[in-house]
Each structure stands twice: as C-alpha cells, then as structure tokens.
Amino acid sequence: MAAQPTAEDVDAAARTLAGHVVRTPLLPSPALSARAGHEVLIKAELFQRGGSFKLRGATNRVRAMTADERARGVTTISAGNHAIAVALVCRAEGVAATIFMPRAASAMKVETTRAQGATVDLESDDAAEAFARMDAFAAESGAFVLHPFDDPAVIAGQGTVGAELIQDLPAVETVIVPVGGGGLISGIALAVKARRPQARIIGVEPRNSAALTAGLAAGAPVRPEVTAPTIADALTPPTAGVHTIAICAQLVDEVVTLDEDELRAGLRYIYSEAKLACEAGGAAAVAALLAGKVDAAGPTVVVVSGGNIAPADLARLLT
Fold first, then answer.
1. Considering the domain boundaries, does residue 1 fall inside one?
2. Range of the domain at 235
3. Burial category of 60 from C-beta neighbours within 10 Å (exposed 0-12, middle 13-18, buried 19 and up)
4. For residue 2, is pLDDT > 80?
5. Number of CB atoms found within 10 A of residue 107's CB
6. pTM score, two decimals?
C-alpha cells in the first residue's frame, strides 16, 4: 500500500473485509429529514461488530500483517472503541494484543476489551501519556504498533463506510462525520470523492478536543489550544495524524466544532427520535445538523459512528 492511501486501497479493503465485518444499513430518518428540509439518512455504524466502525480498520490492518509481525503481537492506544475492535480481531486471528487506555476510559469499554483476551494498561492520565507508554512498550517488546487512525491500512478499512454509503445512495450531496484523529473521515472522503466529487464532506469535533481543526491550521499534528473534558470521549486524541491531515486538507470541505450542550442535544435527539442508543461522540454528526452548524443540501448522510456507552452513562446524559 502507498504511503498515503487511495480510493483503490479502500476498494481492496472492501474485498479483504467481506465476510469479516457487517455491511451496516443506511436508515431513513423522517424526523431529521423534516427538521432539515431535505432527505437525511443515518449510516448506522453502531450496529457494527464491536459497536463501532473501528473494526473495519483494525481488521484490514491485522489481516495485512506478516507472520513475523503477528508473532511479535500487537500494541495500540485507545479510549475504547478501537481497543474493542483490536481485541476482537486479534482474538479471531490468534494475535496477542496489549492495549494502553487512559485511566478515565469507560469501565464498560475496558471490560469489553479484556473480555476478548487483550491485556489492558490503565496507568496513563490521558491519551498523550498512553501514546508514550505504548511507544516505550513497543520499543522494549518489539510489538507491532497498530495506530488507531494514522495508518494507511486503517484509513482504507474505515473508508469502506464511505464505499457502502455511496453504493446505497449514489446521489448523496453531503456526508457529515464525527471526527477524532481523522481516520474515519479520511477514509470516507477517499471513497466518496472518487465516485462523487461534488459531494461535500463535513467533519464534526468537540470544541474541547478539536485536534483535526488544530492540525489543519498548522499543517501538521499539533495539540489543540483548548483541551477539556468532553462527553464525546471517543473523539479525544492528543493530535490528528500526518496522513489524516494531508487527506482532509485535500478532500474534506469543512470541519465544525460543537460545545457540550450541542453534543448532548444531538444524543438526546437521536435517542428519542431515531431510537438509537449511541454514545455522545457517535451522535456528533446529528448534533451538528441540529445545531445549524452545517449548511447541508440535498440527500445527506449522517454517520453514527459508535454505540458503546454504559446504560447508566446514557441515562445520565439523557436526563
């Protein structure tokens, strides 16, 4: 695979993933369509195995590993969804996995990861420290680093979300995507723009963790000027990636940020109107549409990227 992934790499990933991941549905949303004044559909990645889109990229990367890389085991860092995905695919492929998660990671996500046989390290105060601990572990052990978003094979795997939605809705005009490190939106942009260049690709970040916005402004991975706790815990990388910034600078039309009240309103709306129990980060695209932050027109797809949230946490955010 080239240093920077291409639309052809996304097509190859789709062939690799066939039979290993769920082809998630594109669901009509009468409530969102009425609210927006045009057709809106939901790409329901919360129905993916492992509860998020992350299984796509993790599976594509692990299945491309050499025998030597597999023997050394995998290590990665994650706030939760990538951890679950890596644990799932490594268990299926017989590869040892050691995953570094921030101490404040969701207890449900930690336990789900451990239940799949992965070793979990919870000694990091935040994502930046988890990255540092992972790098030190990889240097000492020789484990293969499976980057959560800035790996060409991971990006290509995530891009199969875009390949599916453009097959299901060839006339799509706008695609709105939650953003953490940028792997999902990069892959979707590669797939969608190759088939429908006029479609607009819009990213949505928490204002308290706008790593892609900072990276696009700087032209390189940098920490956001503002970092604070956010209910969208899945969207909190220390920086965006080298590959993801380059792809998004070329193919993504706009990135918007949301405050905590706007994120919470999106979660409540999709739960009450679409009956989808997703996590706050997963509902970010819906939240942006509701908040009027996106100038969407024509058939629009909002990607609901994950549903790994403990019932008690969901109840707290809904009340």
1. no
2. 7-52+152-318
3. buried
4. no
5. 12
6. 0.95
